[in-house]
Amino acid sequence: MRKVLKRVMATVLCILTLSQGIYANELVAVKEKETDSSILKVDEIAEIVKKELKIGKEFEVEDSSLSTDDYYLKKVWNLIFESDDKNIQVRANAETGKIIEFEHWGRNDGEVLKYTKDQVRKTAEKYIDDNYADIKKELVEIEEDKFNRYISYYGRDNYVFIYARKLNNEIFKDNYISISVSGITGEITGFKFIWDDSKYTKKNGEISEKEARAIFEKEDALKLKYIKVNKEDDKNTILTLKPVYYYEMMNSGLLDSASKKFYNVEDIYSYNGDEIVYNGALKSEKQADGLDMGREMIPEEGAISREQAQKTILEKISKITDTKNLDIKRSNYQGWYNGINGKFWNMTLQNDEDNLYVNVTLDADSGKILRINYNKHSYRNNDSINRLKLELASGELTKEDFEMKAKLMLAAGEITKEQYDNRSKDIEENAKIDTDALNKKAQSIMSDMFPNIDKKEYSIDIEPSQDEKVKAYVKGTRVINDIEYSRNGFSMEFDVETKEVVRFSFDWFYNIEVEEPKTIIAEDKASKIFYDQVGFDKELIQIKDKDKEEKENVLLPLKDLALVYKLKPYRFSYIDVENGKLLDYCGEEYKDNDEAEYFTDIKGNKYEQSIKLMNKMGFIRETNEKFSPNATLTKKDAIKWIVLTLSRQYEYIPSAKRNHFGNDEISFKDIDEDDEYYRYVVDAVRMNIIEDGKYFNKNHKVTLMEMTKWIINGMGQKDLAEYTDIFAKEEGVANDDQGYIGLAKYYKLIENTANIEKTKSKAETIDIIYDFIANLEESNK
User: Fold this and answer.
1) Number of CB atoms found within 10 A of residue 117's CB
2) Which residues of 67-80 are buried (b: 16+ CB within 10 A; e: fewer)?
3) 333 close to 295: Cβ distance less than 8 angstroms
4) Distances (CA, A) of 725 to 147, 484, 730, 738, 746
5) What is the structure's pLDDT at 376?
6) 357: three-class secondary structure by DSSP
7) What residues contact 286, with CB distance under 8 A and at least 6 apart?
8) Which is it for strands 472-480 and 188-194: parallel, antiparallel or unpaired?
9) Helix or strand or coil: residue 142?
C-alpha cells in the first residue's frame, strides 16, 4: 500500500506540472556519457534542494521526473522526498536548481490553531532573508484578496504571505513569492517562486487613473440585456425575464498607460497554467446529455404522443437536411425544463451512416420546439489540401515545400488528381465571407423552420470560424423591446463546399413574462455607478515577444514590461435598470457576505489572540469588521459559535451532528429564513443543542451556565448529564444542572462554578471556547 501511495503522489505531481504548461517528456535513465549536461542531474538537484529546505538525512528521494517544454523554454525537475511520516514535493529549475515550488505533507498535527498570522510572519520573512536576500528590496507584501492570481489553496489551518515584485514603484503581480505557514506547527507548508528577467522604465505621457477611467467610459461597455429571474409562482410555468445592465469587457480589458490603447488578448504573455482548461465541446455534450436525466413520466392527458413529437421534430429538421432515416436513440417525457414546470419531450435522434446527431426538447402541450442541437460530422478528403493552402498563404510553408507535400499527398492517395491540379487556386479569394448571403440564408432557414418567429425578434452576427470546413459562424440573439436576451437565439454553420448546414442550435422559450420597469436609468448613469463601485488597479504586465515566436517558434515575454490600468475584481453581476442597485447572478440585490478576515477593534484586548485564532478557523464568521469584544454575549452569537465549533469533525470531540439528521424546519416565530442566524438555529435544534419552541429570543443575554449546557448537549452528552446521581454535588448549583457541571469540569470547559449564573462578554466567551477545544486536543494526543 505504501508503494501505491508513493506512485499516486508522483503521478499527481506530474499532472500539476502538465497543467502549468509543461508537457512532460519523461527521460529514461541511461548510462552516463562523458559529456557536459545542459541540465543538473537528479542527485545534484536533490542536494541543492536539501540545502535550501534544510532537509535532514532521514529524507530520501522517493521519486523524480524531468519535464520539459520547448515552446516556453522550461526545464523542471519534479522530486518527492520522504521520511517515515512526512512528504515533501518539490519543483525546481533543472538548469539552475532554483526551487519553483514545494509543498510539505505530514501527519495530522492537530486541528486547533496555536499561532496568529502576526506570530508566524517572521518565519516567512526569515525564509526570504536566508534564500532571497538579493531580491528582497524588490519585494512588497500584498494582501491575498488583492493579489487576484491563482495560488495553491492551503485551507484555514495555514496563513499565506504574498510578496509581489515592485519595479520603479509599480507592482508586477506576475512575479512573486508566496509562502504558506501552518497556524498549528508554525512551520512552512508551501512555497512558490515566479520570477523573470524583466525591467520597467517609466514612459513619457503615462496617464492618471482619472484619465484611464475616462477612456474606459468612452468604450460604452455597459450593455442592456435580459436575465432569467426566480419568481414566486406556485405553478412555475412562466419564464420571467428582467432587464439589467451588465459590463462587457473590451478585449483583454488592459489599457496601456502610455499609448492609451487596449491590448488584444493575443498580445499578453502568460505562463501560469494553474488553471486547467476544459474542452468546450465536451462540456456542451455533457450539458445536452444532462437533459436526459430528468424524471421519467408516463405521458398524461393533454400531452402529445412520442410518435407525434418525433414527427414534429423530423418536419423541422427536414428544412436543413436531406437525411430521412433518423432513429430515436433516447427519449424522456419529463415535467421540468429550464427551471419551468410543464410537459416536455426530450429526444435524441441519430443517423450513423450520415454521422448526424440531433437532440431536441419539445413542449408536449403546444408541440412547439424549445431547443435543438443539430450536428452533422462531414469528412472530406480535400481537408488536407485546404490546410496546406492555408499554411502556404500564412507563410508557414515555402512554395517549394508546398509543391513537395502536394505531390506526396497525391502519391499516397490523400487527394485526387483534380484536387492536385487545382492546388494553386487562390485560397484567400476562397476564404472571403459573403455576409449578406449568409444573413439572408439564415433568415430563410429560420422562416421555414419557425414561421411564427419574426426576423425583428432577433439580431444576427456573423463571425469567422476557426474551422476551414465552415468558414463562418452565424449567431442569432433574441431581442425583446430592443433589449437582447442572450440565452435565447440560434447559431448555424455551413459547409463551404456543399453549402449544407453542418451545425445548428436553437433555444427559444415562448411562455415568458417580461418585467417592465417604470423608468430605465441612462447608460451613462449606469456606467458611473459601475466604475464608482469597482475602481481600477494599476500594475505591470508582460507582453509576448512575437518576433521570437515567429522566427524561433518559442514563446517568451519581452524584457520591458508595460504599465496598464484594469478593473479591480468585483463580485456583483448586474445593475438594476430602474434603481441602479447592484444585483447578483440571480437578479437579486447583491449583498457582500464576505467574512471579515481581521477585526479592527480588538487590538490590545486581553483575548485578542483567541479571537484571531477562532476567526481564522472559521468559528466566528462575521461580515462586520468590528467585533465589539466587550459587548455582552447574546443567544444568537452563542448558538452560532457553538454550532460552528462542534460541527467541525474533530475525532476527539463527540458531536451530535454526526449521527443526528432532523428536519430543516423550526417552529420559532421570531426568526425566519431571511435572518443570517437562521441556519445556525436550525442546526442547533438538529444537534439537540437547544429544543424547538415558540420563541428563540436571539438577543437574550446568555449566562455561563446556559452556554455550558448548550455545549454539553451539542457534544451528544445530554443523556449522560441527566444522570445527576453519578456526579459529585456542587454547592450553589441546581440539582438538574449537577451533571452538566460535572461534565464541564471533566472536559475542562470550566474550572469552578464561580459566576456560573452571570453573563460574559463576547471576547471572554470566545476565549472559553478556544481553551475548551485546545485542552481537548491536548488531552487526546
Assistant:
1) 17
2) bbbeebebbbbbbb
3) no
4) 59, 74, 12, 9, 16
5) 86
6) strand
7) none
8) unpaired
9) strand
pTM: 0.74
- Cβ atoms of 409 and 389 within 8 Å: the answer is no
Residue-wise pLDDT tens digits, 544-566: 999 998 888 889 999 999 999 99
pLDDT of residue 70: 76
The three-point CA angle 446-299-507 to 5° equals: 25
* Overall residue count recorded for the chain in this entry: 781
Q: How far is CA 434 from CA 119, 471, 472, 496, 777, in A?
A: 67, 10, 9, 11, 73
Whole-number Å distance between alpha carbons of 445 and 454: 12
Give CA 603 to chain center in angstroms: 35
Q: Tell me the Ramachandran region of residue 215: left when phi exceeds 0, alpha when psi lies from -120 to 50, beta otherwise.
A: alpha
| Single-letter amino acid code for the residue at 766 | I
HEC sequence for 767-778? HHHHHHHHHHHH
The three cell numbers of residue 472 are 463562418
Q: What is the Cα Rg of the chain in Å?
A: 33
CA distances from 550 to 268, 313, 557 (A): 15, 50, 13
Kindly report the average pLDDT of the chain as a whole number: 83
The count of C-alpha atoms lying within 13 angstroms of the C-alpha of 387, restricted to the half-sphere facing its C-beta, is 11
**Contact call for residues 644 and 621 (beta carbons, < 8 A):** yes
Burial class (CB in 10 A: 0-12, 13-18, 19+), 143: exposed
Q: What are phi and psi of 245, to 5 degrees?
A: -95, 140
Torsions phi, psi of 286, nearest 5? -65, -35
Tens of pLDDT, residues 653-671: 666 555 455 667 789 999 9
Q: Which residues pair with 76 in a beta bridge?
A: 67, 93
Cβ density class 521-530: b for 16+ within 10 Å, e for less: beeeebbbbb
C-alpha angle 90/93/96, rounded to 5°?
125
Residues whose CB is less than 8 angstroms from the CB of residue 51 and which lie 6 or more positions away in sequence, other chains included: none
- Cell numbers at 110, concatenated: 492537530
- Residue 158 sits at φ, ψ, to 5 deg, of -125, 150
Give the three-class secondary structure for 211. Answer: helix
Per DSSP, the residues of 720-773 read HHT-GGGS---TTS-GGGHHHHHHHHHTTS-S--TTTTSB-BHHHHHHHHHHHH
H/E stretch holding 570 reads none
Other CB atoms within 10 Å distance of the CB of residue 47: 14
